[in-house]
Design goal:
The complex is a heterotrimer of chains A (359), B (281) and C (310). Chain B folds into two domains: 58 residues, no CATH class; 211 residues, Orthogonal Bundle (MetI-like fold), CATH 1.10.3720.10. In chain B, 79% of the residues lie in helices and 0% in strands. In chain C, strands 1-2 form a two-stranded antiparallel sheet. In chain C, helix 5 runs antiparallel to helix 11 and helix 11 runs antiparallel to helix 14. Chain C starts with a helix and ends in a 9-residue tail after the last helix. Classes of the chains: A alpha+beta (359), B mainly alpha (281), C mainly alpha (310). The complex binds adenosine-5'-triphosphate and magnesium ion (MG).
């Protein structure tokens, strides 16, 4: 168990810079999720923490100790790979015990540790098999067994669930959460699945193009995204964006656009009035209401009942937005619809910088 | 409609078998004929009417080639040269193939291409300077010298072929081993090598066959009994002693025997390596 | 394992070295040394020899002569004959091998039961030594007791046995046949792999769209095989141009100069006359022609990455 500090870490391949000064602090026992689209540099960062890739600059500390000059074997970490990377020529038992074997742990002790880990992951009956004779989920468990048996300071996971089918993925996600709560070891977890990020992380780093876009707990990331990229990357269906203006009115500051008029909460800070802004509203924050309570007025375009809820696509002025409404919503295409928004739940973004505006 | 379609398919199948049988006959027919010839008495070879199936079988030709010429000596030299060539290639080429497969470094592509361009060098262009250089350092007429010369065209081939096999061993396995406590060297030896073992064997056999068969370099670089390999020896015997056909055929059969056996053992992996090397990219 | 590697200190040190950034260069070093030693240096030296007089039979004759050998080539009739023969011989062999290879690959690609063994048999000649292949065919085509002569007379194609390699009209063709026997399995191998890499669905889609067998061949098979064919041809051309082995064994360039090709001429100039200077010049010219051909060919067939081994 240890803290992890990543300080101004950079990485270039030749003249191409793929990580631009990344800073992350992870508390002891924390669960850090690196989240971002393909090619944003998540694996690169993880590999540098592991020591599999060299850094081009900056420092990485595990438990307060700088590790950039250490070989992977000397960093006291364990890693679970996307492809599981089980040694095909060895039995499951030897696979799990390999790390201990390399560290010169004697056979008895090794056996005990492997048995414990296997029991924890419910794979005791598989110990004599070869990896080739395991199912995907079983391989995943063996890979995790190989990591936990060593009792390292830090676990690294690189998209460990992406090769599993949907059902198994949910199951293993829960399993990983349970393991983390039980072992209490710090974890860095790479994924491009936002649900995994939200459910597992105590801290989520959203990355894009080698930059950290936002580093915060999942709730903050979801409710107060730092910019339009984060806002649109997290949540499904995605947040609605409506371009408009901030205007002052007798009742306070309002956001106004074609078919939209939302009162802003009383802010602490002074904002410029009459400036263009982008309003971000999550689909579930929209409610169907009577005409006189409406802050958004539009025309129904598509109605998609999914069972527990109904997704309604609404044409508002030139914009199209999605509202997540109760299952028995009865509107039809082409009918007018009136929606209310909780002012406390909206986000404002600057159209030029795409950054969040706090009011 | 369906009837005619099925008939057409049957005709096509028969034609396919026909073509394959014909081509196979073209390929191994000559070898079978050589085998038959090697089992005939000289009188049955030089006859008025051709004997297709030998009426009498004899092993005299084999006895003759083995005892009446320096053939065992030639075979021994060939074994030595082949062994040395494979050893040099495996010792140096395995490391290089591994580096090419695993590391990105400046000039890697150029170096790989360089290894390829070497294949374009005419044998003669290499033979002459090699002869002069080796004569200078006393390596002409030496088995080691010949093996070195073979390295010049077999090492690049070996590296290319083996790299393909290394490429197909997942990198993540090595990463896992390094995190589990191995050094890079340990991961290579313990994890990657066992996985690429078949490829290593196939690549080695491929260059072993090439070294065993090689004729031109050997003709130029060996002058005496001490280092002469069997292709040169056999060729010179034909010229010098008017070797009877039966004996020549027996020598041919004996010398291709190891090739055929080795090829049969590893042909699957070898074919895979050859096609991957030639097509990929 | 740690305990065992700590017992072997040098190994342990090497292990630690493998974690440094110098490791890959250490891996490359041995083979690079070999390559420099047995390829780079001799090649440069060989180029140098082509500008010198070097005859081992006349040790006194040794010195720089500039372009003398290259100029001599211009007025050497054998050079021109050899050049012409090389072109004819290589072209004929490639065409024949490509045709046979395509035939074999198509047949093997149908994957009928029991055809795996044919694949092995068809590939076998490729691994046979030139020396054996040469004498084997010399036996088959022998003017007095060749079985092919016998067969041809029996079926009435020939009236009497023919001396294939001694007749200037048939010598080149006969050697092409032997060369094709030896080389077509290579084409079969590569083309088969190429055919296997074409998704079955493409043919189904074409069949649904109403394309017949010949249209499928023209629209799918050949375009998809283009790269493979291009790569196979270039590799084989290089192989053919560079290796005179079979010709040396079968005809030695004769009768007259009917089967004399550049590589053989260069080799004999070195081997028989020990005229290293001229032989080197011949092989340098051959190499340059080959490079120009390869560059033009690669550009024409637009393979940027055709690579590999034969
Ligand atoms: N060896 C390399 N040479 C050059 N560029 C590289 C190399 N490895 C990675 N990159 C580049 O670095 C960037 C980050 O790659 P990385 O593998 O970290 O992405 P990722 O976020 O893990 O994506 P994914 O979700 O697809 O795994 C990519 O743009 C990639 O093209
Ligand atoms: Mg990745």
């Amino acid at each position: 168990m240890a803290t992890l500090s990543i300080k101004d870490v950079r990485k270039s391949y030749g003249s191409v810079q793929v990580l631009h000064g990344v800073d992350i602090e992870l508390e002891d026992g924390g669960f850090l999720v690196l989240l971002g689209p393909s090619g944003c540099g998540k694996s690169t960062l993880l590999n540098m923490i592991a020591g599999l890739d060299d850094t081009s600059g900056g420092d990485i500390l595990i438990g307060g100790r700088s590790v950039v000059d250490l070989a992977p074997k000397d960093r006291n970490i364990a890693m679970v790979f996307q492809s599981y990377a089980l040694y095909p020529t060895m039995s499951v038992e030897r696979n799990i015990g390999f790390g201990l074997e390399m560290r010169g742990v004697d056979a008895d002790q090794r056996k005990r540790a492997v048995d414990d880990a296997a029991r924890l992951l419910q794979i005791s009956h598989l110990l004599d098999r070869r990896p080739a004779n395991l199912s995907g989920g079983q391989r995943q468990r063996v890979a995790m067994g190989r990591a936990i048996v060593r009792d390292p300071e830090l676990f690294l996971f690189d998209e460990p669930l992406s090769n599993l089918d949907a059902k198994l993925r949910v199951e293993m996600r829960t399993e990983i959460k349970r393991l983390h709560e039980r072992l209490g070891t710090s974890i860095v977890y790479v994924t491009h699945d936002q649900i995994e990020a939200m459910t597992l992380g105590t801290k989520v780093a959203v990355m894009k193009g080698g930059h950290i876009q936002q580093l915060a707990d999942p709730r903050t990331i979801y409710e107060r995204p730092a910019n339009i990229f984060v806002a649109s990357f997290i949540g499904s269906p995605a947040m609605n964006f409506l371009p408009g203006r901030l205007a002052s009115s007798p009742s306070g500051v309002r956001f106004a656009a074609n078919g939209v008029s939302v009162a802003m909460p009383a802010g602490k800070r002074q904002v410029d009035f009459d400036r263009p802004v982008i309003l971000g509203v999550r689909p579930e924050e929209l409610k169907a209401v009577a005409r006189d309570e409406a802050s958004v007025t539009g025309v129904i375009d598509v109605v998609e009942p999914t069972g527990p809820e109904t997704m309604v696509t609404v044409q508002v002025g030139e914009q199209s937005i999605i509202a997540r409404l109760p299952p028995r919503f009865a509107g039809r295409r082409k009918e007018p619809i009136f929606l209310a928004v909780d002012p406390a739940s909206v986000n404002l973004f600057d159209p030029d910088s795409e950054q969040r505006i706090d009011i | 409609m369906i009837e005619s379609k099925r008939r057409r398919r049957t005709v096509a199948n028969i034609a396919t078998y026909f073509v394959l049988a014909g081509l196979s006959m073209f390929c191994i027919g000559p070898m079978i004929w050589m085998l038959l010839t090697s089992l005939k008495y000289e009188a049955d070879i030089v006859t008025q009417t051709m004997q297709y199936i030998p009426r009498r079988v004899t092993f005299d030709n084999y006895v003759a080639i083995w005892t009446q010429s320096g053939f065992p000596r030639l075979i021994g030299n060939s074994i030595t040269v082949t062994f040395l060539t494979v050893t040099i290639c495996v010792a140096t080429g395995t490391l290089a193939a591994y580096a090419f497969s695993r590391f990105a470094f400046r000039g890697r592509t150029q170096l790989m291409l360089g290894y390829l361009v070497v294949r374009m060098f005419p044998a003669v262009m290499m033979i002459i300077p090699l002869y002069v250089v080796m004569r200078g350092v006393g390596l002409v007429d030496s088995r080691f010298g010949l093996a070195l010369a073979y390295t010049s065209f077999l090492l690049p081939l070996f590296v290319w072929m083996l790299k393909g096999f290394f490429d197909s061993a997942p990198r993540e396995l090595e990463s896992a081993a390094r995190i589990d406590g191995s050094t890079r060297l340990g991961a290579m030896v313990r994890i990657v090598m066992p996985l690429a073992r078949n490829g290593l064997v196939a690549s080695s056999v491929f260059i072993a066959i090439a070294a065993w068969n090689e004729f031109l370099f050997a003709l130029m670089l060996t002058t005496g009994q001490g280092s002469r390999t069997w292709p040169v020896g056999l060729q010179l015997m034909v010229g010098e002693f008017q070797l009877p056909w039966g004996v020549l055929a027996a020598g041919g059969i004996l010398s291709i025997l190891p090739v055929v056996v080795l090829f049969a053992i590893v042909q699957r992996t070898m074919v895979q390596g050859l096609t991957a090397g030639a097509i990929k990219g | 394992m740690t305990s065992s590697s700590s017992r072997y200190l040098p190994l342990r040190a090497l292990g630690e070295l493998s974690e440094t950034r110098y490791w890959m260069y250490l891996l490359l070093l041995p083979s690079l040394v070999m390559i420099l030693l047995v390829i780079a240096y001799p090649t440069l030296y060989g180029m140098a020899i082509s500008f010198r007089d070097m005859r081992l039979t006349r040790p006194g004759l040794d010195g720089w002569v500039g372009f003398k050998h290259y100029a001599g080539m211009w007025s050497d009739p054998v050079f021109w004959i050899a050049l012409k023969n090389t072109v004819v011989w290589v072209t004929a062999a490639i065409v024949l091998e490509l045709a046979l290879g395509l035939l074999a690959a198509t047949a093997l690609n149908r994957d009928l039961p029991g055809t795996k063994i044919f694949a092995v048999l068809i590939l076998l000649p490729y691994f046979l030594p030139n020396v054996v292949a040469g004498h084997m065919w010399a036996l088959l085509l022998d003017p007095r007791l060749g079985v092919i002569n016998d067969l041809l007379v029996r079926v009435g194609v020939l009236e009497t046995y023919k001396a294939w390699f001694a007749d200037p009209n048939t010598a080149l063709a006969a050697t092409v046949l032997v060369e094709a026997w030896h080389g077509f399995p290579f084409f079969a191998l590569l083309l088969l792999a190429g055919l296997k890499s074409i998704p079955e669905d493409l043919y189904r889609a074409a069949a649904v769209d109403g394309a017949g067998v010949s249209a499928q061949l023209r629209l799918i098979t050949l375009p998809m095989l283009k790269t493979v064919i291009a790569a196979a041809v270039i590799l084989r051309v290089i192989g053919l141009v560079n290796s005179p082995d079979l010709l040396l064994i079968l005809t030695g360039g004769g009768p007259g100069d009917a089967t004399q090709v550049l590589s053989l001429y260069a080799f004999q100039t070195a081997y028989k006359e020990f005229n290293f200077g001229y032989a080197s010049a011949l092989s340098v010219v051959m190499f340059v022609i080959l490079m120009i051909f390869a560059a033009a060919y690669i550009r024409l067939s637009r393979i940027t990455k055709g690579e590999g081994d034969d």
